[in-house]
Recover the amino acids of this structure.
């Protein structure tokens, strides 16, 4: 069973460490290379793009880091761990991919953000690991289970302060007001408006930096062909994640028609334009909620309550407890709207759910914070 307590926390900041085995053998591509070799090139490419965008660009790129968009990640690092001499002597030549990430809040909400918003970028790296479920084709539960299976149990964790990423950025803004070189998070219309306000020479420099990033992805295209593993799609989705703001503004705005860069990077620009993501799928309609199926007080707060009583119960017989829960007149959202009535609500702890004999597979899907309980987390709360 996955270790539900592998990650460690300090004052609301969580550290997650992961060690996943890298696939052995060769990639199904035009070039003859192993999964480890391709993973090394991907990591070097992404790190080079980050350096060019945040340290080498003049002026500084206004685009945020792909991970920095979400205001929750303090630090992360990927590294490839080779087998030690003893393992190699025994014939084990499997490499492992190590990830250490520090973020705000709990494990469960962070991982759901990662799966939903950053998964296609992580697919570029983690697709080289055994049994990794691609984020765009797997459910959140499946994705989280894979992470749990490959987590490394935390030992000693230190953080300088309990300030969140948003706290740090706010305090930095008090010292250094936001300027044109400060990464921003805008929508497409705001990015296009910003581009129209920039001087032509500055727009040219930003476009040149973007083209260098596109060229590095273009150099990987032969390593990610259109094969049965879906490698080409992994590369294109990851690139579009990294260059989201470039897509929103458009290369036609960043690079003028008469610019010599269009001639120099012609094939690269054509490839980038062909790789544009398809239109976003329409969002599913909001689910219909029957107020009678929701416990009272979940969606609304009764304002006419005058008295209350809290009764603590322990489950000693699962069948009897289930029979009582089925019989009790628990309030629901439909009945809670009725004024001047008694309302009965029921809350269950993790220990209570276990005592009711819920299947282990369902219990494992619960948030780690709920599993730990308020008593164990009193120092954080």
């Amino acid at each position: 069973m996955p270790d539900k307590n592998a990650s460690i926390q300090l004052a609301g900041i969580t550290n997650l460490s992961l060690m996943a085995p890298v696939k052995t053998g060769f990639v199904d591509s035009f070039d003859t290379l192993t999964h480890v070799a391709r993973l090394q090139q991907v990591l070097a490419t992404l790190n080079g793009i980050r350096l060019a965008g945040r340290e080498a660009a003049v002026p500084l790129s206004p685009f945020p880091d792909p991970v920095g968009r979400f205001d929750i990640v303090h630090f992360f690092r990927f590294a490839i761990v080779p087998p030690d001499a003893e393992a190699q002597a025994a014939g084990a030549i499997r490499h492992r991919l190590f990830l250490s990430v520090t973020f705000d809040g709990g494990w469960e909400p962070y991982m759901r953000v990662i799966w939903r918003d950053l998964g296609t970028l992580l697919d570029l790296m983690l697709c080289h690991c055994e049994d990794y479920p691609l984020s765009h084709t797997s459910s959140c539960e499946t994705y989280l289970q894979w992470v749990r299976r490959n987590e490394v149990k935390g030992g000693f964790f230190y953080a300088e302060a309990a300030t969140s990423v948003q706290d740090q950025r706010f305090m930095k803004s008090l010292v250094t007001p936001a300027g044109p070189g400060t990464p921003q998070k805008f929508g497409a219309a705001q990015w296009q408006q910003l581009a129209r306000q920039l001087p032509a020479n500055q727009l040219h420099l930003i476009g040149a930096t973007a083209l260098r990033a596109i060229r590095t992805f273009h150099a990987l295209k032969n390593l990610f062909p259109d094969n049965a593993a879906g490698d080409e799609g992994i590369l294109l989705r990851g690139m579009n994640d990294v260059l989201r703001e470039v897509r929103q503004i458009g290369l036609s705005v960043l690079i003028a028609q008469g610019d010599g860069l269009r001639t120099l990077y012609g094939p690269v620009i054509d490839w980038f334009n062909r790789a544009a993501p398809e239109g976003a799928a329409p969002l599913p309609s909001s689910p219909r909620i029957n107020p009678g199926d929701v416990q009272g007080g979940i969606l609304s707060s009764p304002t006419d309550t005058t008295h209350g009583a809290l009764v603590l119960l322990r489950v000693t017989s699962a069948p009897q407890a289930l029979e009582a829960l089925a019989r009790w007149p628990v309030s629901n959202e439909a009945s809670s709207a009725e004024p001047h009535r008694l309302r009965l609500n029921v809350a269950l702890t993790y220990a209570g759910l276990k005592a009711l004999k819920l299947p282990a597979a369902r219990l494992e899907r619960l948030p780690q914070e709920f599993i730990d309980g308020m008593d164990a987390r009193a120092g954080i709360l």
Q: What stands out?
A: Confidence is low (pLDDT under 50) at residues 280-284. Strands lie at 8-10, 13-21, 73-81, 96-104. DSSP finds 17 helices and four strands in the chain.
